[in-house]
Amino acid sequence: MTSRERVLAALNFQPVDRLPRDLGGMRSTGVSAFAYQSLRAALRLPVKPTRVHDTAQMLALPHADVLDALGCDVVVVEGDGLTNAYEPSGEWFPYSFNGRIPGAQVRNPADYRALPDGTVTQGGTARMPVGAYVFNDEHAGQPLILDGELPRPDLRDVQSALERGLLRDEQIRSLRDTCRRVRDSTDRAVFFWGQLNMGLCIHGYGGLAVFPVLCLEDPDFVHELHDLHLEYALRNARALLPEIRDCIDIIGTDADDWGNQGSLMASPATFRELFLPYRLRHNAELHRLAPQAKTFLHSCGALYDILDLIVASGTDILNPVQWPAGGHSPAQWKEKVRGRMALWGGGVDSQHTLPLGSVADVEREVARNVRILGDGGGYVFANIHNLLADIPPAKIIAMYRAAAG
What is the CB-side half-sphere exposure of residue 278 using CA atoms within 13 A? Predict the structure, then answer.
């Protein structure tokens, strides 16, 4: 099988010659830029620039030779044209993050500034101090408002922002040409992320301390807000998908983290009333416009109690399969969605086994999990979220080799 055939067969619950694997197919299955060159060296690959494509999470965009070495089956195309399906020309520029990542490249070096104490700032507010491996803002960039009147966006401002986000003809032509070139450059499955997202998020407007409460206090307002988001998401989908649908295989629909370590961020009733109708209509239209493509929802945390609702929304694939959160096993997650929704991720406990266990511990857990999650199809292997800076390459390589069986 080609990689594309393998991924699509798995997502359609059909037999595969081996389990499909992903590294960096989207921005929650990647690898830290701080770990990337060590991984290349451990794989006996030559030095190539560390292309830091997600500079908030500090993720490296994997080169094709890394994907080959680890047996990975997915490449990415993002809404601004970024891809790792072929080598780019002229869009990456040197920036070493104050010497911490020699040979690194970014797309917009003017966004960063190195301070005398070694801290690097991004965009004026996000900071990465010496010893840190990601950028962060105070309260993760979200206001922490626990009393008084709940802030809410002006719907006229929301509509104006969504209007500005509508795809222009030249953007559509550029994305069409990029996706066609990607399709001609690789036999890997093509994951399209961005521009087709709906933008719904339980910790969206106002942040985690505000929006779930707003959903309870003023659901009519949230319906209006979500109606707007759906309207503009569908306008973009109807403009873009007919131009690229023959060149892409997976469509990212949102990054909406509904779970924390132990429970949901909001109740199943909130999901059912304020999110399910919009996700259902969004998925239905994407499937109508691109019937061969699969829709993909990223949602972290203890989601077990809303898995049935996510299935009901028409979502084809759920990631990152954070089964350690909430006290349910990989087998329970698998049985909950078996034959109805594919799972992407969940290959190893990324907070305990991967950082704290031995290489042998990692191998045992991965072998167990892929046997469970891959049973009956509907599974693509990846870590639970990104491979962080402190994960040694021996464990990363062990993960992927154990997944190969």
Answer: 25
Whole-number Å distance between alpha carbons of 53 and 70: 20
Neighbours of 296 (CB within 10 A): 24
Find the mean pLDDT for residues 108-131: 94
Average pLDDT, the chain: 96
Whole-model pTM: value is 0.97
Q: Do 211 and 98 meet the contact criterion of CB atoms below 8 Å apart?
A: no
Gap between the Cα atoms of 66 and 31, Å rounded: 11
Rounded Cα–Cα distance for residues 361 and 52 (Å)? 30
Q: Strand locations in 134-212, DSSP E?
A: 189-193
Amino acid making up residue 82 = L
The helix (run of H) or strand (run of E) holding residue 77 is strand 74-78
- Of the CA atoms within 13 Å of residue 183, those in its CB half-sphere come to 14
For residues 84 and 182, is the Cβ–Cβ distance under 8 A?
no
CA distance 249 to 247: 7
124: left (phi over 0), alpha (psi -120 to 50) or beta: left
Q: Output the pLDDT for position 233.
A: 98
SS3 of residue 346 by DSSP: coil
Cβ atoms < 10 Å from Cβ of 202: 20
Whether CATH 1.10.340.30 fits 3-27+70-82+142-404:
no
Is the Cα dihedral 83, 278, 293, 291 positive or negative?
negative
Domain positions in the chain are 3-27+70-82+142-404
Which backbone phi and psi does 83 adopt, to 5 degrees? Answer: -155, 155
Give the C-alpha separation, 155 to 231, whole Å: 13
Phi, psi of 187 (to 5 degrees): -105, 10
Please, what's the b/e burial string for 6-15 (b: 16 or more CB within 10 A of its CB; e: otherwise)? Answer: bbbbbbeeee
Q: How many CB atoms lie within 10 A of CB 157?
A: 9
